[in-house]
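Write out the bound-state structure for flavin mononucleotide.
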Amino acid sequence: MYILGISGSPRLEGNTDLLLENSLEGARSRGAETEKVILNNLKFSPCQECADMLNNGNCKVKDDIQQVYQKVLKADAVIIASPIFFGSLSAQTKMMIDRFQCAWRGKYLFNTDIFASKKRIGAFISVEASERQDFFDNAKAVIKNFFSVINAVYKEEFFCAGLDEKGSVLRHADFLKQAFELGLRIC
Ligand SMILES: Cc1cc2nc3c(=O)[nH]c(=O)nc-3n(C[C@H](O)[C@H](O)[C@H](O)COP(=O)(O)O)c2cc1C
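---
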């Protein structure tokens, strides 16, 4: 199994990154091959709604997001991890998702579903400083739309509230364990 983790946090070794890493470690302990993409390290533009957009599910803008399409294509499971920023996904996460509009267009308007090759497992991890369930719900609604475009079933979620300082999740062994177990369950 090849499991792709996508981190939408700008903080390396921040709460999102650490939880995602624990879930990937859980998957690796079951023999899965894993890879982590840190969106903040990629150079890509937000969707430009090109007037001459392709109809075949692909994006004509050649930047680092092209490698994400290839990794998602290969993935048996995709774990998206994003902090809550202003009540929803981080900009990095949303920017990546918008770049899948080409796939949405191919799938729903032109009957060319580039992710149809397999049914994927989708998981969502999120972290916030407050205790607002509605923020997680906002983010989850977008992730569900994204998963339907990449032919992934929304199978697992793990939301951690009350974490703000960088790395403060390390003081919560239970959260780290639950993230690890999410990785186990995916396999
Ligand atoms: C730009 C920005 C916006 C944020 N907005 C929210 C918010 O709306 N609600 C909330 O509970 N926490 C908010 N936070 C706090 C983060 O969700 C929190 O610090 C989280 O632990 C960061 O995860 P990270 O370490 O993976 O980056 C915000 C933080 C930043 C930097």
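---
Residues 9, 11, 14-17, 83-87, 127-130, 132, 135, 163-164, 166 surround flavin mononucleotide (CB under 6 Å).
The chain is about 40% helix and 20% strand.
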